[in-house]
Amino acid sequence: MTTSLLLSKIINLASARNRRGKQPVKSHANDHHERRRELRRESSDRLFLQIVQSEEQRLVGTTISSSALDASENGLKIASDQHIPVGCVIDLWVDDSAGTGKFFLSSEVRWVIEDRPGSFKLGVKLLGSAATDIQEWRERQA
Predict the structure, then answer these.
(1) CA distance 56 to 87
(2) Looking at the domain assignment, is residue 118 inside a domain?
(3) Domain annotation covers residue 12
(4) Among residues 49, 46, 52, which one has the least CA distance to residue 64?
């Protein structure tokens, strides 16, 4: 009898959420890219990245053409056809698709997912540095 009562309460709770237009939040243990605190905006900014620090020394100096998928004040989600390991420090040259300028940024790769063979998405955390355009970037994102 208690099991059916509990099930009834769960069903009522789910129905109440649906009536309010709220769907239950899905939680995925591997959803590392969902940790941002800032508002994201979709992006189609073209960018070049150069690996400047990596445990795999052969990667240092590699330059890759890629594009941003979304952006926030402190991070980017990037589409790339090359795998870049977590922990790499990369310099980014972002060509703003809105035509407001180009930005030089430094970042660290925080997560990488292979969507399909040869297609990767990676999340980078932007690093504050006096020699970059981080302040202008943050103002643009705000």
Answers:
(1) 10
(2) yes
(3) no
(4) 49
* Section 21-40 average pLDDT: 45
Residue 132 has pLDDT above 90, yes or no: yes
Nearest to 73 by CA among 37, 111, 110: 37
Compute φ and ψ for 98, nearest 5 degrees.
-80, -5
Number of structural domains in the chain: 1
18: left (phi over 0), alpha (psi -120 to 50) or beta: alpha
- Beta carbons within 10 angstroms of residue 67's beta carbon: 15
Rounded to two decimals, the pTM is: 0.71
Q: Is residue 127 part of a domain?
A: yes
Here the CATH number for the domain that contains residue 86 is 2.40.10.220
Element (H, E) at 110: strand 102-116
- Collect all residues with Cβ–Cβ distance below 8 Å to 139 and sequence separation of at least 6: none
What's the chain's average pLDDT?
Answer: 79
| Res 42 pLDDT > 50 | yes
